[in-house]
């Protein structure tokens, strides 16, 4: 709201006593009629415009304008990372390192119910990562998916920790490659209530205890690695934790580069990929929320703002 300007008017001193007397008398009559009080001023309007000061030289108010939010240095840094494509995550983001002994193709995937579904399950049912607490069952599921590029892949190792089982295979078609089949432990994470084909809804249930912000952060950043967000033209801007009304919240802020055509500006779309977890029972949800977008371009001088 604009501040009201206070106008100060100096009245010249009248020299004649008769005029002073008349002025004092008029002021007394005005006060007696209530004209000088402020209590009811908002309900009283002049019968015509003559009671307002005229021609006092006030500056008319400047109409409000809506401005586009400025592009910050952090925005340009995100855009630069998107253009380069070699730094998808910020410092401190937990990304699994590639095994140094693998020189060929590395394929890592979580086994899903759709891998073994038939009929309606394969066509229209929800899709989620499977879980088991039985190592032998995890090995059996992996064996059913042992064919790679038309040839059998030999099981060379099985690993496990408190989160998952991992069956390691080497394809006979390419001994420089490695296939890793992973299955969550149900006493760590049950994803059967979720559907990987949607951006929002249930994310399953965390069964490990205690339920902490660190656990939700570790899971969120781990799951990110198996999404479409871990691809070219995507980058993580930040990864933050919080708590709201007894619910743990972890948000990964994402940037996506949408390239313009025919010389048009490129656009960076910023979204929040958020997981929430009930701190009492471990039930989780996820959502993908658009935040904002801005236009940029890359030149020989670096990343710059742009407008079509």
Describe this structure in words.
- With 308 residues, the protein is of the alpha+beta class.
- The chain has one domain (73-305).
- Helix content is 17%, strand content 31%.
- It is built from five helices and twelve strands.
- It has helices at 17-32, 73-84, 120-123, 135-143, 213-224; strands at residues 106-110, 147-148, 151-160, 164-171, 178-184, 189-190, 201-206, 234-244, 247-258, 266-278, 283-299, 302-305.
- Strands 6, 7, 8, 9, 10, 11 and 12 form a seven-stranded antiparallel beta sheet that branches. Strands 1-5-4-3-2 form a five-stranded mixed beta sheet, with helices on one face.
- Strand 9 (247-258) and strand 10 (266-278) form a beta hairpin.
- The radius of gyration is 34 Å and the shape is globular.
- 19% of the residues are buried.
- The model is unreliable at 1-60 and 62-67 (pLDDT under 50).
In short:
Helix content is 17%, strand content 31%. By secondary structure, it is α+β, with helices and mostly antiparallel strands. It is globular.
Largest sheet: 7 strands, antiparallel
Structural class: alpha+beta
Strand content: 25-35%
Query: What's the total number of strands?
Result: 12
Domain tally: 1
State the distance separating the first and last CA atoms: 33 Å
C-alpha-based Rg, rounded: 34 Å
How many helices? The count is 5
Rounded average pLDDT: 82
Q: Tell me the series of helices and strands, N- to C-terminal.
A: HHEHHEEEEEEHEEEEE
Q: What percent of the residues sit in helical stretches (DSSP H or I)? A: 10-25%
> Could you name the ranges where pLDDT drops below 50 across 5 or more consecutive residues?
1-60, 62-67
């Amino acid at each position: 709201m604009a501040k009201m300007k206070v106008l100060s008017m100096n009245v010249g001193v009248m020299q004649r006593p008769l005029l002073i007397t008349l002025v004092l008398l008029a002021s007394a009559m005005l006060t007696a009629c209530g004209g000088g009080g402020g209590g009811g001023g908002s309900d009283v309007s002049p019968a015509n415009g003559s009671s307002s000061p005229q021609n006092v030289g006030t500056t008319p108010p400047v109409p409000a304008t809506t401005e586009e939010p400025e592009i910050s240095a952090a925005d340009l840094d995100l855009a630069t990372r998107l253009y380069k494509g070699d730094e998808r995550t910020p410092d401190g983001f937990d990304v699994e390192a590639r095994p140094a002994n693998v020189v060929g193709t590395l394929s890592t995937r979580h086994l899903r119910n759709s891998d073994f579904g038939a009929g309606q399950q394969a066509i229209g049912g929800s899709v989620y990562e499977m879980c088991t607490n039985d190592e032998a069952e995890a090995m059996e599921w992996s064996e059913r998916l042992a064919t790679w590029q038309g040839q059998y892949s030999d099981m060379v190792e099985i690993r496990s920790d408190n989160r998952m089982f991992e069956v390691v295979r080497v394809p006979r078609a390419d001994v420089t490659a490695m296939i890793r089949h992973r299955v969550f432990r149900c006493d760590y994470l049950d994803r059967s209530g979720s559907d990987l084909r949607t951006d929002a809804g249930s994310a399953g249930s965390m069964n490990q205890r205690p339920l902490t912000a660190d656990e939700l952060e570790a899971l969120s950043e781990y799951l990110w690695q198996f999404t479409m967000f871990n691809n070219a033209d995507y980058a993580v801007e930040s990864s933050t934790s919080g708590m709201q009304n007894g619910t743990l919240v972890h948000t990964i802020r994402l940037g996506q580069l949408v390239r313009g055509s025919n010389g048009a500006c490129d656009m960076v779309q910023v979204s929040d990929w958020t997981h929430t977890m009930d701190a009492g029972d471990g039930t989780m949800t996820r959502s993908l929320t658009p935040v904002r977008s801005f236009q940029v371009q890359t030149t020989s001088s670096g990343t710059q703002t742009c407008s079509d």
